[in-house]
Amino acid sequence: GKGLAVFTSGGDSQGMNAAVRSVVRMGIYLGCKVYFIREGYQGMVDGGDNIEEANWSSVSSIIHKGGTIIGSARCMDFMKREGRLKAASNLVTRGITNLVVIGGDGSLTGANLFRQEWSSLLDELLENNRITKDQREKYKHLHIAGMVGSIDNDFCGTDMTIGTDSALHRIIEAIDAIVSTAYSHQRTFIMEVMGRHCGYLAVVTALSSEADYVFIPESPPTVDWRDKLCYKLEQARVNIMSLYYLALVAALASEADQVFIPEDPVPNNWVEKLCKRLQQERKSGQRLNIIIVAEGAIDREGQPITAELVKKVVVDNLQQDTRITVLGHVQRGGSPSAFDRILGCRMGAEAVMALMEATPETEPCVVTLDGNQAVRLPLMDCVRRTKAVAQAMADKNWDLAVQLRGRS
Ligand code: ATP
């Protein structure tokens, strides 16, 4: 059978185990010899016990576990050709020419580079007598299929990345817990959620928890952000749609009529508006306020809008009892949701199918979700688009960033 290996790389996310399980079982079902590579690219470079043959039962009882049972790592060695040479040698000696990579855009970029270099890596290994002529010929084509594991939902070309839905569950649980204590003490809570470059978690969280405000990286308020504020949901629906299709769905599915997003093109007095809003809420009988801040929220000068800064604004102006909760890695922990388990299963099966159908000319693909269908997209196109979003944000061109990130 064909040699196929699966590995997880970069930050972990819930649902990766479901994907690994699916790859292993689909691979075995289709007659492949399937391997785990532990600790991401590091295991590929180091070889030895890190590359281990998998069997049907080695992926039993993992679908409900968070994280990734085969480990994930960042790997400096793989950034250098010498490291990739070692990795190629480890794969060829085991007859592995099909790789399923589960990771973020960095991991997928590395896989693509590896494939581009494959021929020259094998030539060099042959020259140095590290592989035989037969091996050089037999394993001359490397096939790659990727899947995106990330809680941030920060990858272009897919409706959802594996892990996002579970992270949302975790965040919502935490907010619901905080709401009950905030209610008792009439407090204002500022919650920082993950999302260095992507406000998806923040927006969906805000919509589904009736937050009063949300700050995200893609759509920062102007530098004078205290003088500007956000829209009411009713006014902002169109903007939300362009920000992200799924955010709209979340808005409609929840009682989100008190949500603000920072997309107001009309100059407003930020402090006045915020204070008015918070005061109004209290006057009308609300005993608490919730403000969501994405960890990467910035103003239009690129200065961070941190939870601390928002707290200072609220305390200085309203003297409200205000607390900050930074959820941190709790968001990445715990068991995957049903959605992420199924997503991992579907993507994994599709990735193996893509590899089995590949010809020498087939370009590396990434398996994504589009309108609830598993689709195969050219890996580098998606990576390029994802990197273009980051560039647009670095260039302070938020309209372009939002447009590029949206569904195409
Ligand atoms: P996350 O979304 O969690 O950041 P990621 O896959 O983008 O996931 P990175 O740290 O960017 O995470 O990449 C993971 C690993 O992929 C790196 O440690 C490195 O081994 C490999 N890698 C990334 N970029 C490249 C590259 N340009 N060339 C070779 N290898 C790379």
Low-confidence stretches: 223-269
Shape: elongated
| Helix-strand topology string | EHEHEHEHHEEHEHEEHHEHEHEHEEHH
The helix/strand class is: alpha/beta
Largest sheet: 8 strands, mixed
- The beta-strand count equals 14
Q: Helicity, in percent?
A: 40-55%
Rg estimate, integer Å: 23 Å
Average pLDDT confidence is 84
Instruction: Quickly count the helices.
Output: 14
> Strand portion, in percent?
15-25%
N→C terminal distance = 38 Å
In this entry the ligands are: adenosine-5'-triphosphate
Give a brief rundown of this model.
Helix content is 45%, strand content 17%. The chain is an alpha/beta fold.
SSE arrangement:
Layout: E1 3-8, H1 16-29, E2 33-37, H2 40-46, E3 51-53, H3 81-92, E4 96-103, H4 105-127, H5 133-138, E5 143-150, E6 162-163, H6 164-185, E7 188-193, H7 200-208, E8 213-215, E9 231-232, H8 233-243, H9 245-252, E10 260-261, H10 270-283, E11 289-294, H11 307-318, E12 322-326, H12 338-357, E13 365-370, E14 373-378, H13 379-394, H14 398-405
Parallel strand pairs: 1-2, 1-4, 4-5, 5-6, 5-13, 7-11, 7-12, 8-11
Antiparallel strand pairs: 2-3, 9-10, 13-14
Helix pairs in contact: 1-12, 2-3, 3-4, 4-13, 6-7, 7-9, 8-9, 10-11, 13-14
Bound molecules: adenosine-5'-triphosphate.
